[in-house]
Design a protein that fits this description.
This protein is mostly helical. It is 53% helix and 5% strand. The protein contains three helices and two strands. A two-stranded antiparallel sheet has the order 1-2. Strand 1 and strand 2 (72-73) form a beta hairpin. The longest helix has 27 residues, at 2-28. The radius of gyration is 22 Å and the shape is elongated. The relative contact order is 0.07.
Length: 78
């Protein structure tokens, strides 16, 4: 009887591990969407740029840059 219980626990642990890994992979995928603020609006004047800089621009954090064709720009391309 304990052998069956151990097998069931192992199966449940495996299922939970796979579920956690699947959720982790799904949440790390890059989702490209619309810009937070339209670029033309940001470039209207200095105040719009400063508002965007203060509210959304985080250059100290890791980020993925994209070119005009939506291909990621790697650091060796810079």
């Amino acid at each position: 009887m304990t052998n069956k219980v151990a097998k069931i626990k192992l199966i449940l642990a495996s299922i939970c591990t796979l579920l956690i890994l699947f959720i982790n992979v799904e949440t790390q995928q890059v989702k490209i969407g619309k810009p937070v603020i339209e670029p033309s609006k940001i470039l209207d004047d200095v105040m719009h740029w400063l508002y965007y800089d203060r509210g959304y621009l985080r250059l100290s954090e890791d980020f993925i840059a994209y070119d005009q064709t939506l291909k990621p720009i790697t650091k060796d391309r810079l």
